[in-house]
Amino acid sequence: MAFNPIVDEEKCVGCEECVDVCPVEVFEMQDGKSVPVNAEECLGCESCVEVCEENAITIEET
């Protein structure tokens, strides 16, 4: 099973919490927003979902 992290750009405020908490460095900041540049590395742990106060991140199972 694979996981696909999705960031809602409208909700993301660029706090970088997801960047800091992700154990496999899925996210990086681009133009003040979090972007899942290494989405294929996602473990589905949902640490980013839990730490995002704006509820801007969802994880899809593929």
Automatic annotation (TrEMBL):
<dbReference type="GO" id="GO:0051539">
    <property type="term" value="F:4 iron, 4 sulfur cluster binding"/>
</dbReference>
<dbReference type="InterPro" id="IPR050572">
    <property type="entry name" value="Fe-S_Ferredoxin"/>
</dbReference>
<keyword id="KW-0411">Iron-sulfur</keyword>
<dbReference type="Pfam" id="PF13237">
    <property type="entry name" value="Fer4_10"/>
</dbReference>
<keyword id="KW-0249">Electron transport</keyword>
<keyword id="KW-0479">Metal-binding</keyword>
<keyword id="KW-0813">Transport</keyword>
<dbReference type="GO" id="GO:0046872">
    <property type="term" value="F:metal ion binding"/>
</dbReference>
<feature type="domain" description="4Fe-4S ferredoxin-type">
    <location>
        <begin position="3"/>
        <end position="32"/>
    </location>
</feature>
<dbReference type="InterPro" id="IPR017900">
    <property type="entry name" value="4Fe4S_Fe_S_CS"/>
</dbReference>
<dbReference type="InterPro" id="IPR017896">
    <property type="entry name" value="4Fe4S_Fe-S-bd"/>
</dbReference>
<keyword id="KW-0004">4Fe-4S</keyword>
<keyword id="KW-0408">Iron</keyword>
<keyword id="KW-0677">Repeat</keyword>
<feature type="domain" description="4Fe-4S ferredoxin-type">
    <location>
        <begin position="33"/>
        <end position="62"/>
    </location>
</feature>
<protein>
    <submittedName>
        <fullName>4Fe-4S binding protein</fullName>
    </submittedName>
</protein>
